[in-house]
Amino acid sequence: xxxxxxxxKLQKALCHKGRYIKLNQIQFYSERLNKITTKYIxxxxxxxxxxxxxxxxxxxxxxxxxxxxxxxxxxxxE
Length: 78
Fold this sequence. Notes:
This protein is of the alpha+beta class. Helix content is 33%, strand content 44%.
């Protein structure tokens, strides 16, 4: 199973527990690396004073970091 599938399964498990997590991907050209790179952004939707707000949990260029954070959240870490 690849990391994208693991991240989606963890995201779905958190959704069943009532935590709504979004995983965004942004691609752009890196002049330093001379190639297209992907940035991953993990956000959580929270309600505060009756309004929905998105809180950025992590921004990274490595998908394994996203999987680790999601697994930690599912295990009760955050």
